[in-house]
């Protein structure tokens, strides 16, 4: 994967929101 594309995805607010939800979901499941 292209590093610059990956970084721009990582820095997007929408991606951060998604990660937050995923972590919360994983925490609930564990």
Please describe what this structure looks like.
It comes from Pseudomonas frederiksbergensis. The structure is a single chain. The chain is an all-alpha fold. Helices cover 87% and strands 0% of the residues. It has 2 helices and no strands. It has helices spanning 3-11, 13-29. The N and C termini lie far apart (30 Å). The mean pLDDT is 88.
What's the topology here?
Elements: H1 3-11, H2 13-29
Shape: elongated
Strand segment tally:
0
Can you write the helix and strand succession as a string? HH
Q: How many individual helices? A: 2
**Which regions have little confidence, pLDDT < 50, spanning 5+ residues?**
none
Terminal Cα separation, in Å?
A: 30 Å
Query: What average pLDDT do the residues reach?
Result: 88
Oligomeric state of the chains present here: single chain
Class from helix and strand fractions = mainly alpha
Beta-strand residue fraction: under 5%
Instruction: State the helical fraction.
Output: over 70%
- Gyration radius, in Å: 12 Å
Characterize the largest beta sheet: strand count, sense, and whether it forms a barrel: none
Summarize the structure.
The chain is mainly alpha-helical. It contains two helices and no strands.
Descriptive keywords:
30 residues; single chain; Membrane protein; elongated; mainly alpha; 2 helices
